[in-house]
Amino acid sequence: MIGLGILKGMAVTARNFVGSYFEKDRLITVQYPEERSPLPENYRNFPFLPYDGDDPEAGLRCVACKICEKECPPQCIYIIKSEDKKPDYMGKPQFYPAVFDIDISVCMSCQICVEVCPFEAIKMDKVYELSRRERFDALLLRKGELSKSNIYYHSICPTEAAEVDAKLAEAAAKKKPAPPASPAAVAAAPPATA
Length: 194
Hints:
By secondary structure, the chain is an alpha+beta fold. It is built from eight helices and eight strands, in the order αβααββββαββαβααα.
């Protein structure tokens, strides 16, 4: 029958229109900005860099591999690798980003940078009030502004953060070197035969 799709669409529209006056959960209006609706855990907006410990510079998980910079569709991530190395969360000397900038005026919140990062060094934030009067420099977030503690990450995404911490702890335990053998154990070991 011709026009059946239009009639079904109009029925859905009418049901939503009438329901908005009588369904209790739809009658509530949030008085923004005084009241805010809670955001779901899987909500995402712009990336941030979680760090472990108290020092954002020393605890940053990023090793400046530049995978996120290469995979970013709008090319809004800019990284310059450091000349020297510092110990990472496992104590292994690693490069770190001397510069890590994200232009949020270009970022489309696609989360590809989070998915490709092998070090769990970039995550999506829930902060959405980032409008500025200036056009250019105010919307370029630098490493200091992007760095947020792991405690903050646990507060916005508790389930995901717990999984990430467990995964990092497991990786650190696997890569931890075996304790050196004592001289008595070496002497008691049977000689190797060729």
